[in-house]
Automatic annotation (TrEMBL):
Belongs to the bacterial ribosomal protein bL35 family. One of its GO terms (molecular function) is structural constituent of ribosome. SUPFAM superfamilies: L35p-like. It holds the Pfam family Ribosomal_L35p. It comes from the Bacteria. One of its GO terms (cellular component) is cytosolic large ribosomal subunit. GO terms for biological process: translation. Transmembrane segments: none annotated. The gene is rpmI. This is Large ribosomal subunit protein bL35. Keywords: Ribonucleoprotein, Ribosomal protein.
Amino acid sequence: MHNGADAELEGVCPIVHYSLYIVQSFFVPLRPVYLIVAGDPVKSIMPKQKTNSAAKKRFKLTGTGKIKRKHAFHSHILTKKTTKQKRNLAHSSTVHVSNEPRIKALLGLS
């Protein structure tokens, strides 16, 4: 289990040794992370899936499982838009069924 990089870290703080394995695991998504815990044998855990930060700010889940979104074109340059346009853009809408699997994957719901 030890390689050349581990030999250089002998006697170094265990936090550095711990972070080495975590950094390596992010480049290979399904490789287990090996934790070095003092007094315990080496444990392996699978890495957690991260929620996309941009998606969690833009989408909300409804009670029935649909995904709510806001309309575009309602943030600036509003003087040339009619009152009816602006009123209709103010209401939220749902994501189309064909895009739902992609959005749910970004939100970590798949």
